[in-house]
Amino acid sequence: CRPFILHPSDFILPRPAHNPCVPATVRPAQQSGAPRPRIAYRLLKAEQFGGSAYLGGRGAEGALRAVLWKHDLEIQQGKKSLDTGHDLRALLANVRNLGLLRAGGRDDAFTTAVQHVARLWYNNMRFASTEAVEKKWLKLGELRNTRTFKQAATEFYDACAVVIKRCEALCHK
User: Fold this and answer.
1) Can you list the residues of the chain whose pLDDT is less than 50?
2) What whole-number distance in Å separates Cα of residue 38 and Cα of residue 52?
3) Fewest Cβ atoms closer than 10 Å to its Cβ: which of 17, 34, 44, 162?
């Protein structure tokens, strides 16, 4: 196991004016999701798969929420709240209900990636050891004799990246 060292640049947050996904009413402290994908990647490369999975999933959740904050006028006006908890499938349904996803199956990869992340990620993962995450994924059938935790964690990270990149594009609409 290699040592893992965070670099100070991992915690630099974007300025609100440069992030189209974050409404002007959101304070900078609420943008803490910005470095999560970068740290998740560094954890993955350091073979800290449990931490990588948690931060990757949390980054995907934050990206879905950002799309809703950007495009849902009732949320912006405080007339409606995001009562989804940490349910990524519910967040996806809300994004779909806004009519932001492309018709004709062109967002199938995005939807599949959200479903994959939602199946394996849980918010209390932040309290779980890597061994506990590995056991849970084994019970879910994500790990097999021919599929290692490293392979599954890499695929999970890639799915999180698909979600985050598509959400960034949706924020620019």
Assistant:
1) 1-18, 25-33
2) 10
3) 17
